Amino acid sequence: MIKKMFYSILCTAVLCGCSAEYLQPVSGVCFESEVLPIFVSNCTQSGCHNSIDREEGYDLTAYEQIVRKGIVPGDFRASEVYNVLLEPLGEERMPPAPNRMLSATDIQTIALWIEEGARNTTCEPADCSTAAVSFAQDIQPIMASWCNGCHSTGAPSAGVVTSTYTGMKTIADNGSLAGTVAHEQGYPPMPDNGGQLSACEIALIRQWVADGAPNN
């Protein structure tokens, strides 16, 4: 509900130039679990804003690099990293075509994080139960946050699809899903260019695989 309220305020601020004071009562975005996955999944592919290529001088793989350029803590409208996400066309659009634009929810999350001060916050859930792991409720949201930016249908990186159950079932059954997200020896660590899933997220994935990777 808080984020829905902020999104309404955000749209008004963008269209009408409202003062940022209307955003101050809203809070609650976690950098590690909500913001970093958006950048890693959508912006750090080969040739883009990773620690090797650093396109346009941007490295969006970790907190220290993300806040170094294009972020004005406390003012999302003055932040270049936010503004390029709104460009529908042209060279300034990020992610560039033919990649899909970020969802309204992702853009909203980044804007709110910046407005709150662009802090390096870590927020492990108080309770991480693996008693009844659901593909729809637990696994799909993790993939949407961390993986689908590179591994969606169409032209998925390395031919791996994480945006569908069929694709997930394949990598669950061959062992690569659990191995890559846990950065186990013998598997390429994923996400590829920065960040790692939380201990809770890895535990949920391991349990889902151990349960037979059901479509539940």
From TrEMBL:
Q: Which InterPro entries match?
A: Cyt_c-like_dom, Cyt_c-like_dom_sf, Cyt_c_Planctomycete-type
Q: Does the keyword Heme apply?
A: yes
Q: Which PANTHER family match?
A: CYCLOINULO-OLIGOSACCHARIDE FRUCTANOTRANSFERASE-RELATED, F-BOX DOMAIN-CONTAINING PROTEIN
SUPFAM superfamilies in UniProt: Cytochrome c
Q: What is the lineage of its organism?
A: Bacteria, Pseudomonadati, Bacteroidota, Saprospiria, Saprospirales
Please state what the protein is called.
Cytochrome c domain-containing protein
Offer an example of a GO molecular function term for this protein: metal ion binding
Q: Which domain of life is it from?
A: Bacteria
* Domain Cytochrome c residues, every copy: 126-213
Recorded hits in Pfam families, A to Z, give: PSCyt1 (PF07635)
Sorted alphabetically, the keyword list is:
Heme, Iron, Metal-binding
Q: Is Kinase given among the entry's keywords?
A: no
